[in-house]
Amino acid sequence: MSLLFKSPLTRSARRFTCLTRSISNNRPHFPCVEAHALRESHIRKSGLSSTSSSSDDGPEPPYARPNPKSYHVYHDPSPLSLTYASLLPSFDVAYETWGTLSPRKDNVILLHTGLSASSHAASTPTNPSEGWWEKFIGPGKPLDTNNFFIICTNVIGGCYGSTGPSSIDPTTGKHYGTNFPILSIFDMIRAQFRLLDHLGVKKLYASVGCSMGGMQSLAAGWLHPERVGKVVSISGTARSSPSAVAMRYAQRSVLMADPNWNNGFYYDGLPPHTGMKLARQIATITYRSGPEWDSRFGRQLRQLPSSSTPEESGLPRTPALCPDFLIETYLDHQGEQFCLKYDANSLIYISKAMDLFDMTASTLKTLNLQAHRPSTLSSDDSSSVPPSQVMHKTSHSKSHPPPVNPPPYLPDLAEGMQPLAHIPTLILGVQSDILFTVEQQREMADALRMAGNDGVSYYELGGVWGHDTFLLDVLNVGGAIRGFLS
């Protein structure tokens, strides 16, 4: 379990944003910059408290930090094979469940999380706080607990109960830090299926995931096609795009530039809270959309404190270099809320795993990855036909025509996704998503169909919430899931 920290600043302290001048020396005063030193001072005084805090501002999904007593932990003493390293000597997987497991254990849905989410996807008797997918899980909801047994894990590499960089290395007795091995999305799936083995679950009814969870849902079907009944990928991708890699690299760069990061060995000192705040601000920009910013904030300025209201001098309001626009105060607040809630190394490792995800056949071959081929497939099965010889059944329509120049890697991607050829798959994209664009969703659908999968359902959603639509649009996202699973 990582050392997580409580943000000591009140909302009013966080939102000091005006530019003032000291009467004594007439030098500029920047409260938004000095807030970092104030935060650090409170962290020192608090003795690195691990208590959580929460926010309820705006239409933001809750990210309740799970209480250690409210989730289960599966400990596997056996080594876990890794993609880029030899072995992880042993590992823990934190998980929570909802619903009732059927006698045949054939009603299990494995729910995969995004980058920073915990296993607490919905409230439970032991933890009644709302989960990050609260409105999607429960009786009569899209993931209907009257019919299904839902399992959600904290991925390895995380910091909410599963083994990650903040965990203790059994060989040294100290935190792994950046001695932790580089992970892949496939490694996360291997650990999850070891949990399923422990629970006696031979086959999933469905593998469901959003964002990075969409990557995991595809990887689960790819690694174990005989053990996955259906796949749901919402705002995911089968191949991380250069633009998404660039956005996550910028986040890691500002985080690793924080002196407190200390090459990843900060667990006995101060966390890199400033770098984490800036990284979260960058991430937030990628999670929402310009049209939402415009309708929600426009170009409105923050309200000045009554003591700072300009006198009736006829002069315009003096702009501030600290947050002045409402959108700036929003990003500042989101960064402040997150910077002490999540482990910095977990963000670095998991975001890197997302960057490395690429299901083109050429990449999979270089990684020596092999899927467990279903024994029911015959040598003349259509999935063995080279994608170049399969009719291109595209996901496009009259309103969404195919691109003039399809991506050159599409046949390579189709070849790589052939193990998924017999798994019914739902793909949901969001037109306002700038992180996992609809073009990537269409590529997935096209590649699967070229690979011989005739059970692909593909939908594009409108709205202004961008990538976070999967967290907020219960009607459309939930309706599509409900229809597909039933």
UniProtKB/TrEMBL annotation:
Q: Which family is it part of?
A: Belongs to the AB hydrolase superfamily. MetX family.
Arranged from A to Z, the UniProt key words for this protein are:
Transferase
Q: Write down the PANTHER family for this protein, in alphabetical order.
A: HOMOSERINE O-ACETYLTRANSFERASE (PTHR32268), SERINE O-SUCCINYLTRANSFERASE (PTHR32268:SF16)
Q: Compositionally biased, Pro residues: which spans?
A: 400-409
- Name the residues annotated as catalytic in the UniProt entry: S211 (nucleophile), D433, H467
UniProt xrefs under Gene3D superfamilies: alpha/beta hydrolase (3.40.50.1820)
Domain AB hydrolase-1 stretches: 107-447
- Protein name, per record: Homoserine acetyltransferase
User: InterPro entries recorded for this chain?
Assistant: AB_hydrolase_1, AB_hydrolase_fold, HAT_MetX-like
Q: Which organism is it from?
A: Dendrothele bispora (strain CBS 962.96)
GO MF terms listed in the record are: homoserine O-acetyltransferase activity; serine O-acetyltransferase activity
Q: Where is the composition biased (Low complexity)?
A: 46-55, 374-388
* Alphabetized SUPFAM superfamilies for the sequence: alpha/beta-Hydrolases
Q: Which residues cross the membrane?
A: none
One Pfam family it belongs to: Abhydrolase_1
GO cellular component assignments: mitochondrion
Query: Where on the tree of life does the source sit, at the highest rank?
Result: Eukaryota
**Region spans: Disordered:** 43-70, 374-409
Biological process terms from the Gene Ontology for this record are:
cysteine biosynthetic process from serine; homoserine metabolic process; methionine biosynthetic process
